[in-house]
Amino acid sequence: MTHMVAINNKQHADLKVTDDALSLSANQHLVPVVVSELNKLVVHYPVVITKFDDSGQFGLSALLGFEEKENLFWQQGEWDAVYIPAQFERLPFYVGTEAQSADSSNRVLCIDMDNASVSEEKGTPLFDNTGEPSNYLLEKQQILAQLLDGETQNQRFIAALQQHNLITPFTLDITFENESKTSITGLYTIDEDKLAALSADAIADLHAQHMLQSIYTLIASNAQIYALIDKKNKANKNADAWFQTTN
Amino acid sequence: MTTATPITHIVVVGGGSAGWLTAGRIAAQHQCATRKNIKVTLIESPNVPIIGVGEGTWPTMRSTLIALGISETTFIKECDATFKQGAKFAKWTTGEEHDFYYHPLMLPQGFSQTNLGPYWQTVAPELNESFSHAVCVQEAICEAGCAPKSIRHAEFAGTANYAYHLDAGKFTAFLTKYCTEKLGVHHVLADVNRVESSNNGDIKALHTEQGVTVEGDLFVDCTGFKSMLLGEHYKVPFIPCDDVLFIDRALAVHVPYDTPQSPIASHTISTAQDAGWIWDIGLQSRRGVGHVYSSRHQSKDDAYARLDTYVRQTSTLNGIDGIKVKDITIQSGHRQRFWQNNCVAVGLAAGFLEPLEASALVLVELSASMIAEQLPANRAVMDIVAKRFNDTFSYRWQRIIDFLKLHYMLSKREDSAFWRDNRDSHTIPDSLKELLALWQYHPPSDKDFTSNNEVFPAASYQYVLYGMGFTSDLGAHQQWVNADFAKQQLMQNRKARGMAVEKLPKHRELINKIHQFGLQAV
């Protein structure tokens, strides 16, 4: 359960957050990401285009595993990569809306009071003695702002891809070292043939909108699927080793 | 016109769904909007109202929309369209309260590898599941009120096979705009009042009351029941089949939903009556309900009363008094030929059958695609194409008549003359009698249908036959039953059924989401 409240420096003057905020949410094989973090994501993660369950609209996601709830980057309570996707990094904070009047609302910073990392006892404080936000809180605010801006940027990016028919479905068929197989559907990526066939005008247009680089970064990130398979093979070996020693 | 004259101008007469689908299909195939080798003109009377036939389609409509380049999202939004996953036939076999069976749009499980009919027949007594439920996921999906796909499926893709229910009037208006704006079809609003012939009997030109004359190389008659070119001008005889199919009248109404968010059925519901049956088709904004009946067996007043009762039972409406009731006369049958000289008829101008298996629009689509794909290059080869077209469609009409009759002749209803008369051997075509004679001893299979031009696959015969309680005497021929494999297939279907119902959204919910978000192209 989540229990979200808007943060203020009076009520929450003594609130602290430990660094295991994401342990409750880590077990997922896809996480939504934003265009502005592509340059960092590409170092570790395959970034794919997926559809939201409730709307069927396209969004961007980093692939973390090969089955539901499998996150190969989450190892023994630690995130096994230097860059953590913003969607995880922001936890346990959220952006909420607060109604100002009947027709206007404000964005407010919220915290999930039910997250085990939140308490008044231990962790990094949200505010300093004078009631000013701590560096920790400022950093989280920045990440949330990035995610918020990212929503609009993502929509513009997806719309541009659709305009040029650049989105194509693909199926990931993988056989792991231990001969187990998996097939993941519902994934989409950039159609490289169509991209190569775009007119000079279309390319110039995408470039002017600062999207060309994102397109190529997204394509480049596909190669991280091999690194992810490698992680899975190692995880399988660890599991096999476990069974051999216990049997 | 000399025999080597190339065919470059196709003139379609009539602006109903038949006219626009045919004009659009030809224009799309020959890229009339960008290339100028072929020109398509549609002449439509500004004064003749459109008869909205067949609000039910076949899954072929998906390929037709794709061929025309129409977005499924736009089509759903503009045409009040919904998803159709087959038909539910209620009270056709015994007429009792819980008597129903489904004719779904998906093949039985493992159909390419095995024929589950015989196995189902042997285990049916203990299994206690209807054939369509035991071998196919779709009955469960329909009964649960679910859509065949989710908002995450691309346009024209889905978990289950599907067709559409649509508002024929809106569909025609949509096609008019689309075909003229996107596909390069020329639109002439005028009343044809004279046909000018060439020496060889071909149509040279059409003259109109408004003074416009339209010359052409090929004329497509989509003038509805009037059959202005094929029937009136060429006098090609009409072959009635009212000796086989007795339906000759219809009363139709639009029934509002109880609330704007009422569930929408994802199948056509056909409920048998004393002297005919009632169709019930769920669109987004209303239901289309109508009673087709045999005027030889029932008066119009009685038909009205039956329709009134049905509407009372299935809605909160207090009957149909005060609602506009359309009274339609139906002549079942078709023209002896469909293509004569340089004129081919499509739609009602070619013939009409009761909408029991939604055959009207599918025949339009099949005709339009054959004309578009096999468009004769010049007048010299047109007669060959015409002959093939005539052979193909004579066969198809016959097969449809047989298949419709099958629904009636298998009934066990004794309660009225209409049902008893339908089983009279003199009213059953020989071709159908032969099939049933064969199936007394072996289960219906694809091997019984040898033509490339079949309209209904063997699976459809199975759904109707087993749905209506037909059994084959398999006797010594137990080779039909591969119990292990069949059992496994039934298990698989049971699993798929549960998953489909759990994962698929309700029909209304999906329609709402399509309005809100649209379906993606991929």
Automatic annotation (TrEMBL), chain A:
Domain of life: Bacteria
Matches recorded under InterPro entries: SapC
Pfam families: SapC
Stated name of the protein: SapC family protein
UniProtKB/TrEMBL annotation, chain B:
One GO MF term: monooxygenase activity
Active site as annotated: 84
Binding site for 7-chloro-L-tryptophan: 84
Name of the protein described by the UniProt record: Tryptophan halogenase
UniProt-annotated binding residues for FAD: 15-18, 192, 348
Matching Gene3D superfamilies: FAD/NAD(P)-binding domain
Record's keyword annotation contains Nucleotide-binding: yes
Domain of life of the organism encoding this protein: Bacteria
Pfam families from the UniProt entry: Trp_halogenase
SUPFAM superfamilies, sorted: FAD/NAD(P)-binding domain
InterPro entries: FAD/NAD-bd_sf, Flavin-dep_Halogenase_NPB, Flavin_halogenase, Trp_halogen
Binding site residues for L-tryptophan: 357
Keywords annotated in UniProt: FAD, Flavoprotein, Nucleotide-binding
Keyword Flavoprotein: yes
